[in-house]
Give the backbone structure.
Amino acid sequence: MAIIVNLDVMLATRKMSVTELSEKVGITMANISVLKNGKAKAVRFSTLDAICKALGCQPGELLQYQE
C-alpha cells in the first residue's frame, strides 16, 4: 500500500517547472523534488493548499492511493 504523488504529471500538464512552482508556493526546490519523487513522509495541509492553488487542481489530482 502506498500513496502516489502525481506532482510530475500535474507539472507537465500545466507546463510548469519545479522552479516556477517553488517560487509560487514558497517552498524550496529540494522540498518540491522530495514530494515529486515520492520520498516525502508527510505533507502539511498548508503546503498541499498552496500547491493546489498554484496548479489550479484538487488534492485528489495530486494524491493517489495504490494497494
